[in-house]
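Q: How would the structure tokens look for this protein?
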Amino acid sequence: MRGGIICKALRLICDQVTGTDISDAMIRVCKKLYAGDSAYTFYTAKAEETITPEVKYDIVTAAGCINWIDEKRFLAKMAEGMQEGGLLVIYDFGITDRMSGTPEFTNWYQEAYLSKFPKPFRKENVWTQADLPEGFVMEKQVSYEMEWTFSHEDLVDFMLIQSNVNFQIEKRTLSEKAARIWLHDTLKPFFKNGDKTLVFSGYSWYIRRNG
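A: Here is the predicted structure in token form.
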């Protein structure tokens, strides 16, 4: 749920907003942040364990989760919980191996970073109409690129929360301290002349609940 930012955006167009996350800690943060607005409801759950609401949803967003969920169970829950005509928006973005004006970063990412922190298993299939059950229509799919500028230390912090790095820390094959030192030292040469801009890739899928 990324700190409830998605829910805050939805509140601009929705009278009631429900946020879920698999992290109890994230849910506690969101409940504290939005305690003053009774329009919000938060609870801990996997996407495919969403509780069917009394008043069905007009819009559902799923950010950064479909690579790990059971698609059939998730869509079955959406069929139960969404209004006819409702919109399901699935989207995410992620880091690429490109740093603006710095081709050497691509070599670092492909040869050093991915060797040190291989990508853990995740489903990366792009859904098509054939993947959707009856009653859902894939209306639109878009891909895009974004840029974000980082200082050296900000990029080290950001890389520490990537799944590649987290996987090894959680499995205790590498400590957080050791990972931070490695990232700090190997990224430092790119920041001799100040902040750097990274390129991110993203996608959005718009799926209509038609019956």
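The chain has a mean pLDDT of 95.

Residues 46-209 form a domain with the Rossmann fold fold (CATH 3.40.50.150).

Upvote if useful.
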